[in-house]
Design a protein that fits this description.
The structure holds two protein chains of two kinds.
Chain A: H1 3-23, H2 29-45, H3 53-56, E1 57-62, E2 65-70, E3 83-84, E4 90-100, E5 103-114, E6 123-128, E7 142-145, E8 153-154, H4 160-177
Antiparallel strand pairs in A: 1-2, 2-4, 3-4, 4-5, 5-6, 6-7, 7-8
Chain B: E1 5-7, H1 9-19, E2 24-28, H2 34-49, E3 53-57, H3 63-71, E4 77-81, H4 88-96, H5 98-101, E5 107-111, H6 115-122, H7 124-130, E6 134-137, H8 146-160, H9 164-172, H10 180-188
Parallel strand pairs in B: 1-6, 2-5, 2-6, 3-4, 4-5
Helix pairs in contact in B: 1-2, 8-10
The chains are: A alpha+beta, B alpha/beta.
Chain lengths: ~180, ~200
């Protein structure tokens, strides 16, 4: 195995990501927004911490593109715009969609789960870039930041609700158990 | 026309969920872009109720067609759309067949503002199914305001260390950073076409 071979495999993985994105079946952007809002609303009802998904979620449509945001674009500390968990963790995300023939294609996303203060790693972040990087080994198109700057681990493409499943039912659950 | 509570579709769907499986309510469609409003109402009903949702046009459905559509299946959510205002005669006919309209799943009447008086005057039995649950289609509380968009644009400019104009120039030159935030920046600038 050589570095060259590792890069070839990383390129192949990015191509697989393209195919997985093509296979995602999403309704029009307002429907994706509605599903996310209902999902967050349902989760909020199961928690002690109060969140208002209607106020936290922001929707912006321009031509065929839609931006769905929750929380700030950059996490610089806890804000009232974040979604707050019972564990003390917080969530922000941004999702960009392109509407094609009354369906949505995912252009890119970022979901950042920040653990409570003092916990290591400090955060996990799920990213999908809009296009492949020239060095897909260092930066796969779909990747997980494991809380270490400039380290990106390949990650499979998930639809927006599935990522929230991982955050609520895996990350938050584990964080609660560890306290 | 009496004053009705203005509610976003998501809240209307939540109220229907609270009322139970076979609840009835009416929503007054917005004066403009009723078709887009109907799409959004359907999406919120599907998401909140976790049920398939159908829209059925009251006009020109016949009695038999309507009865069949309401019961095959009878446990999904159905939106009965009046389209442009129904005639008084049509409201009377619907009221006579009210028992045939009863079903397991919820029913939402999608009305133009002019339909409310006819509903009350010529379909009192259907009106009683609905009770006080008549809502105006209200604005979606999640739409990003101009001030919020501007605040995000400022944050993005500060993070990347250059202006929105420079972001557009770099995107046009194929020099876009790979981060999802840069994509967000272009979309908020109204330049998604550069992606």
């Amino acid at each position: 195995m050589t570095l060259e071979r590792a890069r070839e495999l990383a390129e192949a993985l990015d191509l697989k990501t393209d195919r997985e994105l093509d296979g995602l079946q999403l309704g029009p952007p307002h429907e994706v927004m509605s599903q996310i809002r209902a999902y967050l609303f349902r989760r909020s009802e199961e928690m002690k911490t109060k969140n208002n998904p209607i106020q936290l979620l922001r929707f912006h449509a321009a031509d065929e593109f839609t931006q769905i945001d929750l929380g700030p674009s950059f996490d610089k500390g806890s804000t009232s715009q974040h979604f707050h968990f019972d564990s003390g963790a917080r969530l922000s995300f941004g999702l960009t969609l392109r509407e094609v023939e009354r369906r949505s294609q995912i252009v890119s996303y970022r979901y950042e789960f920040v653990f409570p203060d003092g916990q290591s790693p400090q955060y996990l972040r799920f990213d999908l870039n809009e296009s492949p990087h020239t060095d897909p080994l260092a930066e796969p198109r779909c990747h997980l930041h494991p809380g270490i700057k400039d380290v990106r681990i390949p990650f499979s493409v998930h639809n927006p609700i599935e990522i929230l499943d991982r955050i609520f039912f895996v990350l938050e659950s584990a964080t609660l158990r560890s306290r | 026309m009496p004053e009705f509570s203005s509610q976003p579709f998501f809240e209307i769907a939540r109220r229907l969920e609270i009322r139970g499986e076979n609840g009835w309510l009416a929503v007054l469609s917005p004066a403009t872009d009723s078709s887009a409003g109907l799409d959004q109402l359907q999406a919120d009903l599907r998401s909140v109720l976790q049920k398939p949702t159908r829209a059925i046009q009251l006009q020109p459905s016949t009695f038999e067609e309507l009865r069949e559509a309401m019961h095959q299946p009878d446990d999904d959510a159905v939106i009965l759309s009046s389209g442009t205002s129904l005639t008084q005669e049509k409201w009377r006919s619907l009221d006579i067949m009210r028992s045939a309209l009863e079903r397991k799943g919820p029913v939402i009447l999608w009305l133009s503002p002019g339909d409310v008086a006819n509903l009350t005057g010529y379909a009192p039995n259907i009106r009683s199914f609905i009770g006080a649950s008549i809502f105006l289609a209200g604005p979606d509380g999640s739409i990003m305001t101009d001030a919020e968009r501007q605040e995000r644009l400022n944050d993005l400019s500060q993070h990347f260390g250059f202006t929105g104009d420079e972001a557009v120039r770099r995107a046009e030159a194929g020099e876009s950073p790979h981060e999802p935030e840069f994509v967000e920046w272009l979309v908020l600038l109204g330049r998604g076409d550069l992606l």
